[in-house]
Amino acid sequence: MEQTFLMVKPDGVQRGLVGEIVRRFERKGLKLVAAKLLQVSREQAEKHYEEHYGKDFYDRLIQFITSGPVFAMVWEGDRAIALTRAMIGKTDALEAAPGTIRSDFAVHTNLNLIHGSDSPESAAREIANYFAQDEIVSYEKTVQPWI
Ligand code: RTP
Ligand code: MG
């Protein structure tokens, strides 16, 4: 069982797409184990995007992710990291496959609505950047054996 960190970015919150995005992962059959609306701090943003430090778009990323509230979540399930990345779609909306979140709702690479962890290591690091251990809920979902 894998956990992944997903975050509706400030553009998704402003556009009222939190419900639509959550709905997709719920219907897929993944399990929501933590969620909250928050304002990303400068320190959290730098940790979040440390792999992009020094790139020409780094400052824009930090500015954007701290520009308004985000909806942070932890989802759990078999192969949750790869599945949610596939549902999110490629970084550039133009390359994202039809039916993915970015293809269906995004126009620009820098306003691409949602972040998803890309490996178990980044998931662990990102979950710890936004959630305390006691904010992650452990529970049985009775529908799980049917998925
Ligand atoms: P994310 O981390 O947000 O889930 O997106 P991703 O894995 O698809 O893309 P990543 O390579 O991690 O890049 C993080 C965010 O930086 C912006 N970006 N801009 N060439 C560019 O101008 C460029 N490349 C990346 C995107 O907003 C991307 O989501
Ligand atoms: Mg990434």
UniProtKB/TrEMBL annotation:
<dbReference type="InterPro" id="IPR034907">
    <property type="entry name" value="NDK-like_dom"/>
</dbReference>
<keyword id="KW-0808">Transferase</keyword>
<keyword id="KW-0418">Kinase</keyword>
<dbReference type="InterPro" id="IPR001564">
    <property type="entry name" value="Nucleoside_diP_kinase"/>
</dbReference>
<keyword id="KW-0963">Cytoplasm</keyword>
<comment type="similarity">
    <text>Belongs to the NDK family.</text>
</comment>
<keyword id="KW-0546">Nucleotide metabolism</keyword>
<feature type="binding site">
    <location>
        <position position="112"/>
    </location>
    <ligand>
        <name>ATP</name>
    </ligand>
</feature>
<feature type="binding site">
    <location>
        <position position="9"/>
    </location>
    <ligand>
        <name>ATP</name>
    </ligand>
</feature>
<feature type="binding site">
    <location>
        <position position="91"/>
    </location>
    <ligand>
        <name>ATP</name>
    </ligand>
</feature>
<protein>
    <recommendedName>
        <fullName>Nucleoside diphosphate kinase</fullName>
        <ecNumber>2.7.4.6</ecNumber>
    </recommendedName>
</protein>
<keyword id="KW-0460">Magnesium</keyword>
<comment type="subunit">
    <text>Homotetramer.</text>
</comment>
<feature type="domain" description="Nucleoside diphosphate kinase-like">
    <location>
        <begin position="1"/>
        <end position="138"/>
    </location>
</feature>
<dbReference type="Pfam" id="PF00334">
    <property type="entry name" value="NDK"/>
</dbReference>
<dbReference type="InterPro" id="IPR036850">
    <property type="entry name" value="NDK-like_dom_sf"/>
</dbReference>
<keyword id="KW-0479">Metal-binding</keyword>
<feature type="binding site">
    <location>
        <position position="85"/>
    </location>
    <ligand>
        <name>ATP</name>
    </ligand>
</feature>
<keyword id="KW-0067">ATP-binding</keyword>
<comment type="function">
    <text>Major role in the synthesis of nucleoside triphosphates other than ATP. The ATP gamma phosphate is transferred to the NDP beta phosphate via a ping-pong mechanism, using a phosphorylated active-site intermediate.</text>
</comment>
<feature type="active site" description="Pros-phosphohistidine intermediate">
    <location>
        <position position="115"/>
    </location>
</feature>
<dbReference type="InterPro" id="IPR023005">
    <property type="entry name" value="Nucleoside_diP_kinase_AS"/>
</dbReference>
<keyword id="KW-0547">Nucleotide-binding</keyword>
<feature type="binding site">
    <location>
        <position position="57"/>
    </location>
    <ligand>
        <name>ATP</name>
    </ligand>
</feature>
<dbReference type="GO" id="GO:0004550">
    <property type="term" value="F:nucleoside diphosphate kinase activity"/>
</dbReference>
<feature type="binding site">
    <location>
        <position position="102"/>
    </location>
    <ligand>
        <name>ATP</name>
    </ligand>
</feature>
<keyword id="KW-0597">Phosphoprotein</keyword>
